[in-house]
Design brief:
It comes from Quercus rubra. The protein is mostly helical. It has 29 helices and no strands.
């Protein structure tokens, strides 16, 4: 009996020390709800000394957490269960621990605590101590994985802050976020709150609500919302009808839009834009017969087609492959009292590009300039993209210069679309010209564009340009990931700068990025070829540790430990 009791006590000691070490489990008696006289188990009681030790496996996990999270090793997390005489100091300790988080991450983290009650959640949100703004509110509800109830609760707390005004702009943010995630029940709740607060619905907000329903294929719900629009401060008139038709045609529900248009005919007045929206929807699908039927109904109602109507008609004929008919309609536009505008010329240029007629598209482009119709960003984007795909780089660069000289600044995605084909063939000279000119006029370059340029410069061994590009990327606020480090290492290896390549690889390892086996093998083989065995061996040991840590992180994330 004494031998078994010693084994049981030893088991409790090991269990307490290695697995559930806590201030509340300082003795074996804490496992039992009643006092257990250990002295009665043995005539010679052995005192149990629980040492404050850490298991080697736990120490390894702790060290990995310190590497992943920017927390000092000598810092101790505050005990949330310990009473503090200075609550301000305790809040400051919590803020020091989560100081590396973004403001929106801190606010979303409140809902991960599973607090009970609205008052507790709002108090926790207030204790975060964030200087709230509408931009932060938008980032909280647009990113992460908050549920509909949590999003509404957060927004209701946010609008109580003096920095957030109760106007239509704030409500637009939460409606768009809820609609994007198909939380339609809460969208309706927010609309009722708007009516209670005296905030009237405008056409932009109505477009957001209707588009959310149509995008989720709930067209009938969108039509029902349109019928009840007067409850939210809008009139069921032509403008609201055009908003509904635009949402339906934009999401390719053109047939439903056409049917609804016929059903409300005579109940709601139409205008030219009403018919143009439906004609544009059919033209994008290449349904020429439906375009003609809607055009006939438009003429019967006494509306004359405008340039937008002809543009949609030409676009629809081009999509159906009837290029000759489109050219004929374009040439007879002036006879019908309609002078072609930029949109009409764009339609003719797009049709020429679709059949590979670059001479024709340049002819219409020059005709546009001679007729005092100014090209827009869409004109140049289509022309330059088509020329780059056809590898007519010189013509594309000339048009790009004309585009910038007219004060037309391309957006970030447009510049990236220009660089993609250029980085798939030929040297990086043309891509660098577009990059430098776009950056000079103030266009923001995307991270994808920087990676494309780094990849191309690395392949051609342009090491100086590559390092400058890397610095400029970091100046723009982009952080380097494993893909960026691999491009830099590969470029340095291609020109023989192995020591610099090793330094870059060590930097990537310190940041927690483990390079691919292909890049490491390339660098390792070049080091061995130059008889730098010791350098290669030291790098091998670091790579070995990095891969072990990466496998550990994968295991943690697979078990739900997301750091």
């Amino acid at each position: 009996m004494a031998f078994q009791s010693r084994r049981f006590i030893g088991f409790l000691e090991r269990f307490n020390r290695t697995r559930y070490h806590s201030h509340y489990l300082s003795s074996p008696t804490s496992f039992f709800p009643f006092p257990f006289p250990f002295s009665t188990l043995d005539d010679q009681p052995s005192p149990i000394h629980i040492k404050n030790e850490i298991n080697p496996k736990e120490r390894f996990v702790r060290d990995q957490l310190f590497e992943l999270l920017p927390i000092p090793r000598n810092s101790s997390a505050p005990n949330p269960f310990r009473y503090s005489e200075n609550p301000t100091k305790q809040v400051a300790e919590f803020r020091a621990v989560d100081g590396f988080l973004l403001p929106e991450e801190k606010l979303r983290g409140v809902f991960l605590q599973k607090l009970k009650g609205k008052t507790a959640i709002e108090q926790a949100l207030t204790n975060v101590g964030i200087e709230l703004s509408l931009d932060i509110v938008a980032r909280v509800v647009n990113t992460g994985n908050l549920g509909g109830e949590a999003m509404v609760m957060f927004f209701n707390w946010a609008i109580k802050n003096p920095a957030i005004t109760k106007d239509i702009n704030g409500y637009c943010v939460i409606i768009k976020a809820l609609g994007r995630r198909k939380f339609f029940k809460f969208v309706t709740e927010i609309l009722r709150d708007m009516r209670t607060e005296g905030v009237s619905l405008d056409l932009e907000t109505l477009s957001i609500v209707l588009d959310s329903f149509v995008r989720a294929h709930r067209v009938s719900k969108a039509i029902q919302m349109f019928g009840n629009v007067e409850e939210f401060g809008l009139k069921c008139n032509t403008e609201c009808l055009n908003v509904l038709l635009q949402c339906m045609c934009h999401r390719s529900h053109v047939g439903a839009a056409n049917s609804f248009l016929n059903s409300v005919k005579g109940k709601i007045p139409f205008d030219v834009m009403t018919y143009n929206i439906v004609i544009g929807g059919w033209s994008k699908l290449g349904r020429v017969s439906e375009v003609e039927s809607v055009l006939k109904a438009m003429l019967v109602d006494g509306f004359s087609p405008d340039c937008l109507t002809f543009g949609y008609l030409i676009e629809g004929l081009g999509g159906a492959g009837q290029i000759d008919d489109a050219v004929e309609i374009f040439e007879h536009m002036k006879d019908k009292g309609c002078v072609p505008d930029t949109g009409t010329y764009n339609a003719m240029i797009f049709n020429s590009i679709s059949v590979g007629d670059f001479e024709g598209c340049m002819k219409y482009y020059k005709s546009m300039l001679s007729n005092n119709s100014d090209p827009d960003v869409i004109t140049y984007t289509k022309l330059i993209s088509a020329l780059l795909k056809a590898r007519k780089v010189a013509d594309a660069l000339e048009l790009f210069d004309e585009m910038l000289s007219r004060g037309l600044i391309p957006c970030t995605g447009t510049v990236t679309s220009f660089l993609e084909p250029l980085c798939s063939y030929g040297p990086p000279h043309a891509a660098m010209m577009i990059y430098k000119k776009a950056r000079k006029v103030g266009c923001r370059i995307s991270l994808s564009a920087y990676k494309l340029l780094l990849m191309r410069l690395s392949r051609f061994g342009k090491c100086g340009m590559l390092l400058n590009m890397w610095d400029e990327m970091q100046e723009c606020g982009y952080s380097s990931d494993m893909e960026v480090y691999e491009y830099v290492i590969n470029g340095l290896c291609n020109i023989g700068q192995l020591e610099n390549a090793v330094l870059v690889m060590e930097e990537s390892l310190r940041k927690g990025f483990c390079p691919s086996r292909l890049i490491y093998s390339k660098l390792n083989n070049k080091l061995l070829a130059l008889n730098k065995v010791e350098r290669a061996y030291k790098l091998y040991l670091k790579i070995k540790d990095a891969r072990r840590d990466e496998n550990a992180r994968r295991y943690w994330r697979a078990n739900g430990w997301h750091f």
